[in-house]
Amino acid sequence: MKAALIGDGQIGLSYARSLSKLRDTACWAGLCGVTDGEAIRLAEAAGSPVFRTYEEMMELAAPDIVCVCMPPHMQQEYVLKSIERGKHVFCEAPPAVDADWLKPAFQAAEAKGVRLLAGQAERFAPYFRDMKSKLDKGAIGAPGVVHIQRSAPYPAEAGDRHADAGAIRDGVISRWLPKDIFLLRWMLGEINTVYALNPRAPGVDYALVTLRFASGAIANIAEYWGDAERYRYRIELAGSEGVIRYDSNNTASIEVKRRNEAGDSIETDSPSVRSPYDEQLADVLRCIAENLPPIVATEDIVTAMNIAEAACISLETGMPVHLNGGERI
Questions:
Q1: Of 95, 109, 195, 197, most Cβ neighbours within 10 A?
Q2: Does the pLDDT value for residue 127 go beyond 80?
């Protein structure tokens, strides 16, 4: 299967690394929109040309699948263009700022006889799989309270638009909250209520979201753009008989730190044989090749986006939003 990639940033680089490893299932046909030096070297080492534009790549590379690895507000255009060309499409979740366009996108993909798949790489991370396994085995009893903290520097491409109170649908809530909702629904089940706060200022986007589950469990999620340190993720699940904790800064696996091309920041990676991005992309390629359902169901991504939209409504009204099966009541 011939695969092309459009995108940049850390997500684009992560999937570029994965494409360079999965040569048994995918031939890397083209790369565009990327400025990261490592991604370009990976493509060239795999014999993949680097194109200046999406149109040039599609005409000359003729891929079977297009991996769209861009910020949510930029993905829709390339997803729809690729479907119109009769290509399978994979994009990292959330695939857009809102989910309204996804239904017609799925219909267009079905009409063209292609697959539209959204990814959630953390679903394949060993620490989340371990948490899910422990919860299923009753290792901490009945789950009661979950605390999640995500923090990172303010995204360079965000500019000042996130300081505008009217732009809440293109900030930390739209980009990060669907990921946490997806993972928490997978581990703890349906969400009945969402309540959100979102203090914002130039260079700062801070969300506080409380979720109540049908089981009675409660999750408190704090997400922050504006930290001076690199990305960090922390989660604590407290149950009736124990606690599970994970902190990305205290991972037990070996970390490899590399200075980036410009020399102005440090990237951290793990030398594991297969990363979550490898596992995610391998599952996508397998599903397309064998016409199987993906591990990450796109319907669950859409539901997570709808619940994140309910959080935005909570911000606007100052009131909790009640849900039934992910839909607002």
A1: 95
A2: yes
